[in-house]
Amino acid sequence: MTLDGFEHEKAARIVAVDWAILAEDEGKRLKALGVDEGAEVAVIHRGIFGTRDPLAIRIGRMTIALRRSHALAIEVEPA
């Protein structure tokens, strides 16, 4: 399941990231923020309009905003 479809406020573990579908600079930024295999994350907010963009995720003690297209590249499993 991708991060985009994961339940709100539930803990998840990143099992894979499809770096090939992300632009190189976007991938570097996400890696620098700790988005990588094995990291624990949780979706804590979704945008209110039709696309539900952006998503706010908690990773460690940090909250970051992701585009939905980035969340679709991140495969997670329940933690």
Automatic annotation (TrEMBL):
Keywords: Iron. It comes from the Bacteria. SUPFAM superfamilies: C-terminal domain of transcriptional repressors. Residues 1-78 form the Ferrous iron transporter FeoA-like domain. It comes from Qipengyuania mesophila. InterPro entries: Fe-transptr_FeoA-like, FeoA, FeoA_core_dom, Transcriptional_repressor_C. This is Ferrous iron transport protein A. The keyword tRNA-binding does not apply. Pfam families: FeoA (PF04023).
